[in-house]
Amino acid sequence: MSLSEQEQRTLREIEQSLLAEDPKFGNRVPSGAGLAGPNGGGQLTMRSAALMIFGLALLIGGVALATVNVWLVALSVIGFAVMFAGGVMALKSPSRGPVVSGRPAPRVERSARTSKMEENFKRRFEGQ
Q1: How many other C-beta atoms are found inside a 10 Å radius of the C-beta of residue 126?
Q2: Which residue range is the domain that position 13 belongs to?
Q3: Number of C-beta neighbours around residue 91 at 10 A
């Protein structure tokens, strides 16, 4: 979900004030850098999805087989670690969307219904 123009403007103002307060920090952190990348998220690749599914199967298998032998609980722990590694891989992989540094995202045309819903939402919170 993209940010509204007002939210983008507020975010830019916060970024500019932070850079004005601490220019050394601004030199260390590239513009638009976030935890999951500049576009707000990584990309779920086939490899990361396969790791997460395999980890889930190990986790469930370890829980199911825990009644047979207590040492098979380690299989669940390994499954969780594999699942976690797949999730981290998905977050770290770069997204394929075009990145335009320093420019606002292209304006997306909205339908009349979406615009009306957005106006109603804004009106609801402006009155309070």
Answers
A1: 7
A2: 1-33
A3: 15
